[in-house]
Design goal:
Length: 299
């Protein structure tokens, strides 16, 4: 029997590698930079694509707007079914109240025809000429149609249509008056006019201010002339014809001494409405309707 010293113990398997044993190596984790660049480029592509699509969409909307311009004032009138027209109905034969208490005259017929072209009805509002422009700017009317002469001073606060009638200033006197034949004969005369009109402007050119008598309308001016309180009236030829036709004791002295054109009046910058009414006026002129109005009311 072998002794204890002679017995040998078999070595136990070691689970720990010795210092001399080589350590198995793994490849190091290296960031894949080319993947990051692909992600960055992809994001930039998406941003650029989105910006391009937004630009195309905006351009498309802009083109649609340009193809279909907004017509806010025309649409407002059409939605209301009427156009409100301010006029001073004391100015025959252009605008006046007839024996049936209805408004009549050249401008009334023209206003009704313009409304017809717009597909709406005309509603007339009688306003003294002295306040008629303020009334328009207070939005109490859509337009003014009241024998308004187009001039540069008025263009500072309102806009005009194309002219629809050419009229000039004339002088009215008593039938028996023979000393007044032109505006040059008015320097020492009393001149009756409606205030706020181009007739007032012409009177102030012909005579001193204290000889220019101002009235709210030409009815008062006519009464003053007939009563001997004035020596003459200055007014447009169109109005003069109506005054003389109604008062046989009066006459038109001489020829028109100015060139004046009437236009429809608008608030500033209502370009869509101006264009629409200009189209209507051109159509009525081509159809001969303006000639018919002149024959009906002025000849």
């Amino acid at each position: 029997m072998p002794s204890d010293q002679d017995q040998t113990v078999p070595p136990e398997p070691s689970s720990v590698l010795s210092a001399a044993s080589p350590i198995p190596s793994q490849p190091p984790v290296v960031p894949k930079r080319h993947h990051l660049w692909l992600i960055v480029l992809g994001l930039w592509f998406i941003v650029l694509l989105g910006a391009g699509l937004f630009y195309i969409s905006s351009l498309s909307r802009k083109l649609v707007v340009e193809e279909k311009p907004s017509l806010p004032n025309v649409e407002r009138i059409k939605n209301a079914g009427k156009i409100i027209i301010a006029t001073d109905a004391t100015y025959p034969p252009m605008e006046f109240v007839d024996d049936n208490q209805m408004m009549a005259g050249y401008d009334i017929d023209l206003g009704n025809k313009i409304a017809e072209k717009l597909g709406v009805k005309a509603e007339f509002s009688s306003i003294l000429f002295d306040d008629i422009f303020n009334s328009l700017n207070r939005r109490e009317a859509d337009i003014i149609l009241s024998s308004v002469t187009i001039n540069e001073e008025r263009k500072q606060t309102v806009d005009f249509s194309i002219p629809y009638l050419n009229a000039g200033q004339v002088i009215i006197t008593l039938e028996t008056e023979n000393s007044i034949k032109s505006e040059n004969d008015l320097s020492a005369k009393r001149i009756a006019v409606q205030k706020g009109t181009t007739s007032e402007d012409e009177a102030l050119k012909a005579a001193p201010p204290d000889q220019v008598l101002l009235f709210d309308d030409f009815i008062g001016a006519t009464d003053a002339l007939i009563k001997g309180e004035a020596d003459a009236i200055i007014t447009d030829l169109t109005n003069a014809k109506g005054i003389v036709d109604s008062n046989q004791e009066l006459k038109i002295a001489g020829e028109p001494f100015t060139e004046e054109e009437y236009g429809v009046v608008f608030r500033k910058n209502e370009d869509d409405l101006i264009a629409e009414i200009n189209t209507a006026l051109n159509s009525l002129r081509q159809q001969g309707y303006l000639v018919l109005l002149k024959q009906k009311w002025l000849e």
